[in-house]
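User: Predict structure, ligand adenosine-5'-triphosphate.
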Amino acid sequence: MTTTIALAGKGGTGKTTLAALLMRYLTTHHRGSSILAIDADPSSNLHLALGLPNPRSVGEIREEMLALSSSGTVGVGIARRDYLNSEVRMAVEEGDTVDLLAMGRPEGQGCYCSVNHLLRQIVDDLGHGYDYVVMDNEAGMEHLSRRTTENVDWLLMVTDTSQRGIQAAKTMAELARTLAIRVRNVGLVLNRAPAILPEATVAAIAQTGLPLWAQIPDDPLVTEFDGLGRPLAGLPADAPVVRAVERLAAGVLKI
Ligand SMILES: Nc1ncnc2c1ncn2[C@@H]1O[C@H](COP(=O)(O)OP(=O)(O)OP(=O)(O)O)[C@@H](O)[C@H]1O
Ligand SMILES: [Mg+2]
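Assistant: Predicted complex:
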């Protein structure tokens, strides 16, 4: 059984940071498990937080395949599926502890429906081969609404303490419920949270109707690591963010 965790929320709230920290948690506490990180942000940067090279993206594979089809090099039906399947599998960047797949740019306008449908199935099948899939999204719901993955066990709506961030999390959580994807659990993760929350923040959180799954402190070590371009996997075990993500993962997500 695969456990799928997706992170969404307003821009710059800490989705990529928390995705990398969840991966750090999984690789230290579930050594031996297979983990697939999906970078569903077209301006791919999850690889930096993971310390991996930037992989060739699914978007690039789609563009290349469309170019090949129009030149008649790749056929239709089975041939297409086999081609895409092997290209996607080859594009997976295999790290020591985590594999990484980048989605790249979403499809443009036009009749690429059958190709996108195939790619969705291929990415889903690929995910089913792993114990854990962690999907970092761009700001907004683009990839979730394009159903980059079919089932999400835990949808983490990441926000800072701002009213706009919390409101965006609420709106996106509502949108997620209307989509064809199956989201089993949705909750808020309050990032860069002070020890004592301002009353207005508490009130805004209550208004979302979402459970508050975690409060992650602002951690100067994250700033330092990001400044140096060091992967967050290298953060010490006693770093406040590492501890807070541990509480989220073990206490709420039960992983
Ligand atoms: N808990 C934290 N403590 C300190 N700095 C943090 C923390 N969380 C995130 N940051 C910093 O905030 C910035 C934005 O974080 P991040 O890139 O993870 O956000 P994002 O939601 O993925 O952004 P985008 O929407 O652009 O993808 C980064 O510079 C990161 O170092
Ligand atoms: Mg990001």
